[in-house]
Amino acid sequence: MNNNNYPTRSPAEYENRVKTIVPLLKNVLEMLGEDVEREGLIKTPERWAKALLDYTKGMEQDPKQHLQVIFKLDEENYPNDAQDMIIVHNIQFTSTCEHHLAPFRGTAHIAYIPNPESKKITGLSKLSRVVELFAKRLQVQERMTQQITKAIDDYLNPAGVIAVTQATHYCMVQRGVEQTSTSTTSTSRRGVFLTKPELEGKFQDYLRIELDNAKF
Ligand SMILES: [Zn+2]
After folding, report:
1. Residue 3 has what pLDDT?
2. Would you say 101 and 20 are in contact if contact means Cβ atoms under 8 Å apart?
3. How far is the C-alpha of 133 from the C-alpha of 143, rounded, in Å?
4. Does domain 11-55 match CATH 1.10.286?
5. Distance 1 CA to ligand 1 centre (A)
6. What pLDDT score was predicted for residue 7?
7. Which residues of the chain have pLDDT under 50?
8. Pairing with 114, which of 46, 106, 170, 180 sits 20 to 30 Å away (CA)?
9. Domain edges within the chain
10. What phi, psi does 119 have (nearest 5°)?
11. Domain 62-214 belongs to what topology?
């Protein structure tokens, strides 16, 4: 999708989409052998249509809105050779697998090292909003993880950024393909995280400290 092309969904457009989708979903239920007029199902196509639009609302949102630079590190406290990381761990997300339209849910851990020249930083909550935005699309986990680091790279231009996501895929769980405890891990690295593997080791050490602290 073109980054400059994010149509906004007006209330009228939203209603129009719901109206168009409802009869199609009714059809799907009928094809499953259901009686769409029975009490439990009478409003299901409409609920389902609204849920689908909610699961995919990130398709029309630009990550730029969450990645405005809100402040810069000051010169004195941030030497040019600094490699200090800003880490946000355990960002929970629920996304939709594009192959089966089933949910996959899990956590994302992100770290970036501010650019020593521009010293740009964003708010910590903005990183979880970026995860949420990409999760609310039809996705594959690997692509979502790449999109997260690309957006941070594009708008904050850090020295480096890394994201790790771990998720359980319900298309597998529900169909019995895999055990329910199995999770899938994806990683994406940019900038100095590609050239200095020791930084990733540090990142993992920090995540372990966070996990240990979480026990208390
Ligand atoms: Zn799937």
Report:
1. 40
2. no
3. 13
4. yes
5. 21
6. 61
7. 1-5
8. 106
9. 11-55, 62-214
10. 55, 30
11. GTP Cyclohydrolase I, domain 2 (3.30.1130)
